[in-house]
Design goal:
Rossmann fold; GMP Synthetase, Chain A, domain 3; single chain; globular; 12 helices; 31% helix; 2 domains; four-stranded antiparallel beta sheet; binds zinc ion; 432 residues; binds adenosine monophosphate; alpha/beta
Length: 432
């Protein structure tokens, strides 16, 4: 039932004592990075400021902007030759935030994933099909090594190519899959097209759903279509990637591995910690990392701690399914997109006006993005060839930036309503 019983069920007081030691150790390590070395010195803080876990609040938060501003190596805490792997957040082809791992970091991360997968019921003998993008993003290699560590047979299928996914699943009797929830729904339409019933025509018993927010209703729908149990998997590249928090067989919130992460929930306006049970923004400090540990990293993900103990016996607290974001990042087909990326691209294209609107839709099981863009009046008179040409260019430029091909709708100046105050850039019409 447990991958590491002693750690997973550790007495809270023992766990917290171990956290304090790991925190102090981490503070010494991060002090060697350019960014924290400078910050700690300026603020006169360091390892000696920490006598108890609550002293973490003496330290400033770290944000994605800090990572971007000190790209690429400003946060690494070991000499470069000790780094063995780089990953990045999913989303942009430009300067995505990057994270670095030492060999030990990879081993610790792999073990966390093994712990998660074992907890959900995966075992040696399972055939695991990893339908996530391999490469820079973390969902591919992260899960891959965790599953191998358990001893499962791993099929590194990667993302997309639905017919091949289904064929692999059937040919090799896949028993466990890792999939983005919106893709799981899309894939079910391909089963329909092929006149196959995923419940009868495959052997999948377990699915891991991650990389994007999804509701309990959506999980239930996926479980119903496929007849498997679907477990919520949460993580972010800045904290390794997947393997941060994961559902146990009770499927009521995700255990967040507190031997590896110090967890805070803050009010995103006052930035003050809130008590357990109250909703806020998840903030995390790495406790085991060497290559690039982060202190009080603002995930911008909204959730709450579930204060009650879990019936499974694990003592690591649970967080509730992610409710949303405290910033304007949106996730489409598992890819993180900031409206600012789209704005920047658009503003560089001659002929494009100042107003645009991103509309997200769900048709059947297909999620899409339409970008409505105001362009110069001249494009609408006479020959519309120039308009078509501009549209093509915009699609290409945006695809290059966000990795997804959006639909583009070009409209006349002043036709997108301007609200009062801050411009509304995103309308999310994705419904259940
Ligand atoms: P990345 O840095 O590319 O790994 O993306 C991490 C972000 O993906 C997180 O901060 C969340 O916003 C989102 N995410 C990952 N897993 C989940 C999940 N299970 N539920 C909701 N959001 C998720
Ligand atoms: Zn549990």
């Amino acid at each position: 039932m447990y991958w590491e019983k002693e750690i997973e069920t550790m007495d809270r007081s023992k766990l917290e004592a171990a956290q304090l030691i790991a925190l102090q150790d981490t503070l010494i390590k991060v002090g060697k990075s350019y960014y924290y070395g400078k910050t700690f010195q300026e603020k006169g803080i360091g390892v000696s400021s920490v006598k108890s876990l609550s002293d973490i609040t003496k330290f400033p938060f770290t944000t994605k902007d800090d990572l971007r501003e000190h790209w690429p190596y400003g946060f690494t805490a070991v000499p470069k030759d000790e780094l063995v792997r780089m990953h990045s957040s999913s989303g942009t082809t430009g300067r995505a935030t990057v994270v670095f791992h030492t060999a030990k970091d990879i081993a610790v991360w792999t073990n966390l994933l093994a712990r998660c997968l074992y907890m959900a019921g995966m075992r040696k003998g399972d055939v695991f099909q990893n339908m996530m993008t391999y490469g820079l993003f973390t969902g591919g290699l992260g899960f891959h090594y965790g599953a191998e560590k358990i001893g499962a047979l791993v099929i590194p299928a990667g993302a997309g190519n639905s017919k091949r996914q289904i064929q692999l699943m059937r040919d090799f009797a896949t028993t466990a899959v890792h999939v983005i929830p919106s893709y799981a729904l899309h894939l079910s339409t391909v089963f329909d097209e092929l006149n196959l019933d995923p419940r009868k025509d495959t052997s999948v018993k377990i699915a891991f759903l991650g990389a994007e927010p999804h509701t309990e209703k959506m999980r239930k729908k996926i479980e119903e279509i496929y007849g498997y149990k679907a477990f919520n998997s949460y993580g972010l590249s800045e904290m390794n990637g997947p393997g941060v928090a994961f559902e146990c067989p009770y499927q009521d919130g995700m255990h967040i591995w507190e031997d590896s992460f110090l967890v805070e929930i803050i009010n995103s306006k006052t930035l003050q910690p809130v008590p357990d049970g109250e909703e806020g923004e998840l903030v995390m400090t790495s406790l085991q990392k060497e290559g690039m540990p982060l202190i009080r990293y603002r995930t911008k993900d909204l959730t709450r701690i579930i204060p009650e103990p879990c019936a499974c016996g694990r003592t690591h607290r649970r967080i509730e399914r992610i409710k949303g974001r405290s910033d304007d990042m949106l996730i489409l087909k598992g890819v993180n997109i900031f409206p600012m990326q789209i704005e920047k691209k658009l503003m560089d294209i001659p002929g494009v006006g100042t107003n645009f609107l991103i509309i997200l839709t769900r048709e059947g099981y297909n999620d899409d993005m339409t970008v409505k863009v105001e362009v110069g009046k001249q494009y609408f008179s006479g020959d519309l060839k120039q308009l078509e040409k501009l549209k093509k260019k915009i699609i290409e430029e945006l695809k290059g930036e966000i990795l997804i091909t959006p639909k583009v709708d070009l409209v006349e100046p002043d036709s997108i309503p301007k609200g009062e105050g801050k411009a509304v850039r995103v309308v999310d019409n994705r419904k259940e």
